[in-house]
């Protein structure tokens, strides 16, 4: 297993995570496919790529520990960890219930803390450990009605920068910040805006210099690059894959 | 064009990802990029003051717009239309700002910023006409982080980032993607053996503890060209963690 590497991709039953799992598998990795619970979409991807099912709620440390122990027991130490699982709701800041705020932060930010801490011994043992954190364009720019999500994603950027310094050169940590990407998440945005999904695509594309929104496969290609064991001189960086949409300083 | 070169050009167009022009291709990062792209099937032309080990080698100065235009035309004739442009031509020197001569300042800007602009003027029209192009300008982590004794180099490399971001927004919808790779200190002839960037004390301050290799920069450039279909105006920093 050591030759082709073992990867764990969280939130991989759909959208960007599924594309990442497929891409890493196509590159030769044995991929453990995580999502919050075992469901047909997860099993389908596992079967498609010859991977492992690794259900767990990343906001629960006990579940994360058990999942990583199980993956490493059957496949060997993780060489690549892709932290992609995320939870998101949209709504005005003043109306955001504290319970839901914490669910966003606990899943996106603290979930990533749990994953990296639990995976670190294996990543070190693999001798080529790579962590890729999927953050967001909105974590850099902020976005109306997405305060908790944007804050959690901004927290992930600081986590990338800090762990990029702290864990190198043994384990290399980088992040990727997708711009608006064609995933099921856009249905949430469309509902928030009170428009159709097609109108939502059009509205987002209008703000992108490239004139379209991104595809999950384009984000997955960036993740595969950041997970490449041949590149060890890039650490603590955020790769912005957003079609040129820039509304921020950092 | 002879029948022989016409056949060669036709073959090149039919097979592989296409033709790349790499400036500064005779050594260091440019040479590594040329090798990497060739390995990926690209037909590569090099433009450098010295001959490059590429499919086509043109010698010339990037500050010479006339020579660049002629080179772009010759490369297109011999290999086919230029689909990818990588601008790696450049040089490095450290000079404290109060000792920096106007000539040193002017030359630094002329080679890096002027050279990029002149190369783009020679190559971009063809890319826009075909609505197909990838441009990667090599910048530097010093453009982002600055450095003691690096005012003119950082200013020139920083100006490249402004140009890249603006041009990227301008031409993205026309099929041409413009991006930059900003290497940190890299193990090339640009860094003399006695360079402070090679000193163990300095390397110990880097999170990865070593210089980047030209091969790592070259693979990053290949990724941006071949797989960066949603990268526009991006700066990819492969810098050993020197600037985070």
Would you give an account of this structure?
- The complex is a heterodimer of chains A (about 250) and B (about 240).
- Chain A is of the alpha/beta class and about 250 residues long.
- Chain A has nine helices and seven strands.
- Chain A has one domain: NAD(P)-binding Rossmann-like Domain (Rossmann fold), CATH 3.40.50.
- In chain A, strands 3-2-1-4-5-6-7 form a seven-stranded parallel β-sheet, with helices on both faces.
- Chain A is globular, with a radius of gyration of 17 Å.
- The model of chain A has no long low-confidence stretch (mean pLDDT about 95).
- Chain B is an alpha/beta fold and about 240 residues long.
- Chain B has one domain (about 5-240): Rossmann fold.
- Chain B is about 45% helix and about 15% strand.
- Chain B has helices at about 5-15, 30-40, 65-80, 100-130, 140-145, 150-170, 200-205, 215-225, and strands at about 20-25, 45-50, 55-60, 80-85, 135-140, 175-185, 235-240.
- Chain B has a seven-stranded parallel β-sheet, with helices on both faces.
- In chain B, strand 4, helix 4 and strand 5 (about 135-140) form a beta-alpha-beta unit.
- In chain B, helix 4 (about 100-130) runs parallel beside helix 6.
- The mean pLDDT of chain B is about 95.
- The interface between A and B is medium-sized, with 34 and 34 residues.
Tell me, briefly, the overall form of chain B. globular
How would the global form of chain A be characterised? globular
Q: Quick check: average pLDDT of chain B?
A: 94
Helical amount of chain B: 40-55%
Keyword list:
heterodimer, A: 250 residues, alpha/beta, Rossmann fold, 7-stranded parallel sheet, 13% strand, globular, B: 244 residues, 8 helices
In short:
Chain A has 250 residues and is α/β, with parallel strands linked by helices. Chain A has helices at 15-26, 40-49, 61-75, 98-126, 137-141, 147-166, 185-193, 197-206, 216-226, and strands at 6-9, 30-33, 52-53, 80-83, 129-134, 171-178, 238-241.
